Amino acid sequence: MTPPGGQAYIEPMNTIHHSAEAHQTLRELETQVEALARACDRLRDENRMLRHQNEQLLTERSILTERGEQARIKVESMINRLKSMEQAV
Please, which domain of life does this record's source organism belong to (predicted)? Predict the structure, then answer.
């Protein structure tokens, strides 16, 4: 049935079919966007944790390097004292 003016009240079947396909595609895209958002959140959290861990490891490395340097100085000092004791005898 066509009203005056020539526009049909009922959508053609192919339009309805395309609309259902578009709706399905939209749902699939929404699902993908949600998955990407979750992945982004997870990666952001992991990145934050790795940066914190890196800071801790750099601090620990600095402490261990300093301790190694102090040990080296003490050993050199002991060697020098032993050499001077040896020369005194």
Answer: Bacteria
The average pLDDT across 56-81 equals 98
With respect to residue 72, please indicate whether it lies within any of the assigned structural domains: yes
C-alpha distance from residue 89 to each of 10, 18, 41 (Å)? 117, 104, 72
Q: 75 is in which domain, residue-wise? A: 24-88
2 is a domain residue? no
Q: Determine if the pTM surpasses 0.90.
A: no
Provide the domain count of the chain.
Answer: 1
